[in-house]
Design brief:
globular; Barwin-like endoglucanases
């Protein structure tokens, strides 16, 4: 009888012990990663290749595919079959990048444009007016960006 009681008493240590240990470390790790990256774990995410575009480039107008004014360092062109238009994206690699007004970028972009060359896991980041506007974004590793959908917007992207 004592052996059975001892075995029953040990069951929580066998089954709960390792799981309890994992429960203690995983949320902390997730919290640390979300603070470091700023990414919210609830939205879908993509590993993407990126290109840059600016006003004044061949074929680039002042309006995006929604009919809204393109916003420097906020408008992103997407393949709407992969990333729905009107998605708010967080691109962690752009956090801290210099904005046109001199402030630091917070990593939020608005999927309001499309492009004929944007197919599959690609995005096109709008940098502003003229090729000089691309300077801050040229420091990015454009072959590997991480985007997480953190919400949707209505109307035009804030500018």
């Amino acid at each position: 009888m004592r052996r059975r009681l001892a075995a029953l008493a040990a069951l929580p240590l066998i089954f709960v012990g390792p799981a309890a240990h994992a429960a203690v470390t995983d949320p902390v790790g997730d919290l640390i990663m979300s603070v470091v990256t700023g990414a919210l774990p609830s939205g879908p995410g993509w590993n993407l290749k990126a290109t840059l575009y600016h006003a004044g480039a061949k074929g680039v107008g002042a309006l995006d595919a929604l009919g809204c004014k393109v916003v420097a360092m906020r408008t992103v062109a997407v393949d709407k079959a992969l990333i729905p238009r009107r998605s708010v994206l967080f691109i962690k690699e752009t956090v801290g990048m210099k904005m046109p007004d001199g402030s630091a970028h917070d990593g939020y972009w608005y999927a309001s444009d499309v492009g004929s060359a944007i197919k599959g896991p690609r995005i096109d980041l709008f940098t502003g007016s003229g090729s000089r506007s691309m300077g801050a974004a040229r420091t990015l590793n454009l072959s590997s960006l991480t985007a997480v959908k953190v919400g949707d917007f209505t109307g035009c992207p804030p500018g």
